[in-house]
UniProtKB/TrEMBL annotation:
Family of the protein in this entry: Belongs to the LTA synthase family.
Topology within the bilayer: Multi-pass membrane protein
Binding site for Mn(2+): 262, 310, 490-491
Biological pathway: Cell wall biogenesis; lipoteichoic acid biosynthesis
Catalytic residues as annotated in Swiss-Prot or TrEMBL: 310
Subcellular location: Cell membrane
GO terms for MF: metal ion binding
Keywords, in A-Z order: Cell membrane, Manganese, Membrane, Metal-binding, Transmembrane, Transmembrane helix
Transmembrane segments: 7-28, 48-68, 75-97, 132-150, 162-180
Binding locations of substrate: 428
Region described as Disordered: spans on this chain: 704-725
Gene Ontology CC annotations of this record: plasma membrane
Protein name per UniProt: Membrane-bound sulfatase
């Protein structure tokens, strides 16, 4: 025992031994933090191993730097300083996480003077007795030095050996990056959420990454001027599509309920899946809405997202501005930029209260910050809903039926009119969300050789029946009659790399599948259901997610003339019907479809290989118009130009007044304060809950049509690898 002690103290009394001990201590404390303070949502053994490994490379690299120093005092001081900085970072994150369930970004650090992000006095309240663990090593090491059990090493560390330590840590770091990329492709370009980054790369690396993001955003922001906004506004003014009097204001004053249909493509509408000679209607309820004359439905509506996927769709739908050409706008700019988004606009035009309901953690896509900037009063993430179990959830959170059911108890306390967005998740890649739920077996899997495609229909069917339950509740509670329900598919569910396997299910040949076919599959539903309205129908106007907001606002009787939006009202007669996909050179109009270098007739997909002069000119003009729309949007978004937009009649959001904690008591306090004037459903219902009106779905049985057709739906083509799901 004594021997071991002596050896240990001997090691600690060398410079390298000291540095390695610090690395070890930091690693131990990180593991402690990972398990007690942070919830990393580790899903498999690979991610567990990665999280065990990830604190080491950068810690070794940083602490290893001190080994280059010759002078004893300077060496020890530097090692202690670096070590302390790393510790401050760890402890600050642990404490911050207890309050915000998120990691400290450099953005949040810089903004900590603002009450919305700073912890202020509450930091002390967040401390726990066990936090002593975070400084235990200091106590022990200092005691050992003071009692001369260990001593400082006066011998400078060999230069070459120092270099070897640096090289080794650099190599370990590359291994870490490589393993992280395997676990989650495109992690660094798409970022997803802070949790994903920390669990793959560790805290120090996450902070460096976040610092770089802030730096890049700040750089562009600081170079932009009010003059640029003027130019952007000139574009917006020129492209303004005036409201169509036939539709203007037809939904004025109603509640707006938005349902984000995860990964839902237009081809699912009216689709019947053929399995072993039987046909199964995938989304009977959504189909009925699509065909209802109470619905304004669009059949040529395209998603316009890129790497930010869901977050891009949200950005487009609620700002009428595009996401970024790389990464996610909500992640990179969400907490900082000035935005005039739907919740804010509706609050100031009709006194709307706003909320988002979503079964995943609030930090995903930086929603917890971006939503404040957009003016959302409440954000009900998974922490407000049923506890996640194997049965009711999967990697992206709580399944839709539970999410809708759980949201009622909050929705009924919202003051009306309200703007409430429900972001579904169950129909998300890899389409296995129902695997843990024994009650949800039933809808058949498709029989291609691509598992992803096979599961897609069953989860879409589940979403359909979840939506049906929710509509039943809306009707039973009476909310239905004074609301409109907006539904949209956020982006493709089956990526282009899988489309050849999907082709046979769509009655197409995988051999002759083209990029035109890929482009046509980027259609997603866009429907505005207006109970009591009878002049709806299927509208064939070509448009995209960027056009949704002006369309909606005009239906609500809010003119968008003064707002800086790059989309156009789809119901306006002045709409130009040019749909720009997020990549320049990719666009669709009723006449032409361009996919990078290829040009097609939209009608039938014939490729135009030798365009005549008139065609060439027409296409050139479209190409330029699409590119200009993207360019103006990018300038607004990356330059944070809306901070100069002071004469649009709207006030900016004061984010310090928004707090997503304890929403129920906030809502109840408002009800109490308003007394008789409270317009929440709960108040109107004589202070009684309407939760019991949400029935467990009784129509889980399939809507099955046996047909004579016996074509097997097995795809002959090869299964493709994952791309950007
Ligand atoms: C996560 C969910 C999925 O909370 O919205 O986002 P996606 O992967 O579709 O971008
Ligand atoms: Mn999505």
């Amino acid at each position: 025992m004594k021997k071991i002690k002596e050896t240990l103290f001997g090691i600690l009394s060398t410079r390298l031994g000291f540095v390695l001990t610090l690395v070890l201590c930091y690693w131990l404390k990180t593991m402690w933090a990972y398990h007690t303070d942070f919830s990393l949502g580790l899903e498999n053994i690979y991610q567990v191993l990665l999280s065990i490994f990830n604190p080491i490379p950068l810690t070794l690299l940083l602490l290893g730097l001190s080994l280059y120093v010759k002078r004893t005092k300077v060496f020890y001081t530097l090692a202690w300083v670096i070590y302390t900085l790393l510790n401050v970072l760890l402890i600050a994150n642990a404490i911050y996480y207890r309050e915000f369930s998120d990691f400290l970004t450099v953005n949040a650090l810089l903004a900590s003077s603002k009450t919305s992000t700073g912890l202020g006095d509450s930091a002390l309240n967040l401390m726990r007795v066990t936090d002593i663990i975070y400084i235990l090593d200091y106590i022990i090491l200092i005691a050992l030095f003071a009692t001369k059990k260990i001593h400082t090493d006066k011998r400078p560390f060999n230069k070459r050996a120092s270099f070897a330590v640096t090289a080794l840590s650099g190599m370990l770091f590359s291994v870490n990056l490589f393993l992280a990329e395997i676990d989650r492709p495109e992690l660094l370009t798409r970022s997803f959420s802070n949790v994903y980054l920390v669990r793959a790369l560790g805290l120090p690396m996450f902070t460096a990454y976040s610092g770089n993001q802030t730096y890049q955003a700040q750089k562009e922001r600081s170079q932009s001027t009010a003059e640029e906004l003027k130019q952007a506004k000139a574009y917006v003014e020129k492209h303004y599509a005036a409201p169509n009097p036939k539709y203007y204001g037809i939904a004025k004053g109603r509640n707006v309920i938005v349902i984000h249909l995860e990964s839902f493509q237009q081809f699912l509408i009216d689709y019947k899946l053929n399995v072993d000679g039987k046909e199964y209607e995938v989304t009977p309820f959504i189909n009925s809405l699509y065909h209802s004359n109470e619905t304004l439905a669009f059949s040529n509506f395209f998603h316009q997202v890129k790497a930010g996927k869901t977050s891009d769709a949200e950005t487009l739908m609620e700002n009428s501005l595009f996401g970024l050409s790389s990464g996610s706008f909500m992640v990179n700019y969400g907490g900082e930029n000035t935005q005039f988004a739907t919740p804010n606009i509706l609050a100031q035009n009709g006194g709307y209260t706003s909320a988002v309901f979503h079964g995943n953690v609030g930090t995903f896509w930086n929603r917890n910050n971006a939503y404040k900037q957009w003016g959302y009063n409440y954000f009900f993430d998974s922490s407000y809903l049923s506890k996640l179990t194997k049965e009711n959830s999967f990697q992206y959170g709580l399944n839709d039926k539970y999410m809708f059911k759980d949201s009622i108890k909050y929705l009924e306390h919202m003051q009306q009119p309200f703007y409430a967005k429900f972001i579904t998740v169950s129909n998300h890649f890899p389409y296995t969300s129902l695997d843990g739920d024994s009650k949800e077996k039933g809808f058949p899997l498709a029989k291609t050789n691509d598992e992803t495609i096979n599961g897609y229909f069953a989860t879409a069917n589940y979403l359909d029946s979840a939506l049906h339950s929710f509509f039943d509740y809306l009707k039973a509670s009476g909310l239905y009659d004074n609301s409109i329900i907006v539904m949209y598919g956020d982006h493709y569910g089956i990526s282009n790399s899988r489309n050849t396997s999907l082709a046979p299910l769509l009655g197409k040949n995988s051999e002759t599948w083209t990029d035109y076919d890929n482009t046509m599959l980027q259609r997603v539903p866009y429907m505005i259901h207006i109970p009591g309205y009878t002049e709806g129908g299927i509208n064939e106007t070509y448009g995209g997610e960027v056009d949704a907001l002006p369309t909606l606002l005009h239906l609500l009787g809010i003119d968008t003339k003064n707002y800086t939006m790059v989309g156009q009202d789809l119901l306006s007669t002045q709409n130009s019907q040019i749909v720009a996909l997020r990549t320049s050179g990719y666009f669709i109009t009723p006449e032409y479809t361009s996919y990078g270098g290829q040009l097609y007739y939209t009608k039938d997909g014939t490729e135009i290989t030798n365009p005549d002069n008139t065609t060439e000119e027409k296409v050139k003009a479209i190409r330029e118009a699409a590119a200009e729309q993207l360019k103006v949007s990018d300038e607004i978004q990356t330059g944070d130009l809306l901070r100069f937009d002071t004469d649009n009649g709207l006030k900016t959001v004061d984010t310090s007044k928004i707090n997503y904690a304890k929403a129920m008591s906030q809502m109840k306090a408002i009800e109490k304060k308003l007394g008789d004037k409270s317009t929440s459903l709960y108040s109107q219902n004589g202070n009684k809950s309407t939760q019991s009106l949400f029935n467990a779905p009784s129509y889980l049985q399939l809507s099955e049509t046996v047909t004579s057709s016996s074509t097997s739906s097995t795809s002959e083509s090869e299964s493709s690898s994952t791309s950007s799901e």
